[in-house]
Structures are given as C-alpha cells and as structure tokens.
Design brief:
1 helix, 50% strand, 15 strands, mainly beta, elongated
Length: 226
C-alpha cells in the first residue's frame, strides 16, 4: 500500500476523485453532485487495486452544506459509483440542519454524493441547528441514522429525545428535520410491551397551567366582584 503524508494527500486524493468520477460522468446514470466530495487528513494510505483508502489524523470529509470529521476514516469503493466510509474516534457530523457526535460512524455515498450516515456511541448525540434556545431539539441514543436526502433522523436503542424542554422516551424515535414532526415507536403493537413516555415541561404547551400568555390575551379575573 502507498503511504502519503499530509503534504501529498490533497493532490493524490484529487487525482483519485477525478479517476472515480470520470467514467461516471460519461455514463447515462443519475447526475453527479458537481461539487464532489472533498477529503483531507494528516496521513493517506491507499490501495488502488483494492479500492480501499485509509486516512488518519484530523480527517475531514466535506460536501456542500455538510462535513464529517474523525481521527480515522476508511473509504471503500471510491472508484466505483457507490461506496462506504467508516469513521473511528471523536466523530462529528454536521449539516445545515443537524449536529451529530459519536464514537464511531459509517456513511454511504452514491454518484458522488453522501446519502446516509449511521452514528454509534454510548450514547451518540443529536441536535437540530437553527432553532431558538427555548425550542431546542436534541436527542441521544446508541444508534442514530441520518438520512441526508430525506432530512430525517432515526434514533434507536436507549433513546431519549427532547423538544422545547419536553422529553420523549421510546424504543424508536424518527424525527423529520424539515417538517419538525416526531413519530415514536412506528408500527408498535400494544402486546409488544413497547411504551411511549412523554414529560411535558410546565408552560411549554399553550393552554396548560403555567403557559405564557399571548400578547393580546388578558389575565384571568377573580371569581367574585368587589
């Protein structure tokens, strides 16, 4: 296997990426992401014959609007039209909509575009970006699957999910980042024993005691007149 230092890595990676995308651009297949996938690291160890590429030290893989960082990453299938990236140690995945942190992760890519990522940890953490502190949406689980195409996050195994201070516990939580919709235990049956537990923060739901008054809403009057 060829071993390259950081100084050589960028040029070699660019060459490999061009080799990978050239035949695809000529094929009558779905259009490639013209921005491509950019990779950088301190060390790049590549086997062109096996199409396996190992990167170590400050690994960063980016694509328009998204970045994935770790101490080590192994890329398989770089010269094909689909492949896989395995991340190890201090994994940080960030898009315009979400921020994930985990111990390990794997991602899939097709036609020059990263499509999904599965983060694993004890636990892995998720937070939606762009929401005010009062409506913070976050969660943790041993496994978090992020579908970049659909804009969904699926949490399984030891799930805890919070929105605006309200908490949800369930076996599976699927959250749609675009519609801000939560589905808990999809397809679950009562006899399976799976239950959904929800804790509502006082004042977080309009109409409940302690909820903030609307600007045009008058305080309630006493029960008797003077």
């Amino acid at each position: 296997m060829a071993v390259l230092t950081r100084a050589d890595a960028s040029a070699s990676l660019l060459s490999v990426l061009l080799m990978a995308t050239a035949p695809l651009a000529q094929a009558a297949a779905p259009a490639l992401n013209t921005a491509g996938i950019n990779i950088s690291a301190d060390l790049y160890d590549s086997s062109l014959r096996d199409d396996v590429h190992v990167l170590t030290g400050n690994v960063k893989i980016t694509q328009t609007g998204m970045s994935m960082e770790a101490e080590k990453a192994t890329v398989s299938g770089m010269q094909a039209n689909h492949g896989r990236i395995d991340f190890e140690r201090d994994v940080h995945i960030r898009s315009a909509q979400a921020d994930l942190r985990a111990d390990t992760a794997d991602a899939t890519f097709a036609n020059g575009e990263i499509t999904t990522a599965t983060a694993k940890g004890s636990p892995a953490h998720f937070e939606q970006l762009g929401t005010p502190a009062s409506k913070k949406i976050s969660g943790r689980a041993q496994v978090i699957e992020y579908d970049f195409v659909r804009g969904t996050v699926k949490l399984t195994q030891g799930v805890w999910f919070s929105y605006g201070g309200n908490e949800v516990d369930g076996d599976i939580v699927i959250y749609d980042l675009n519609d801000e919709r939560i589905v808990v235990n999809p397809g679950a049956k009562a006899e399976s024993g799976g239950r959904v537990n929800i804790t509502i923060k006082p004042g977080s739901v309009p109409g409940l005691p302690g909820a903030p008054k609307k600007p045009d809403e008058k305080p309630e009057q006493g029960g008797h007149n003077e």
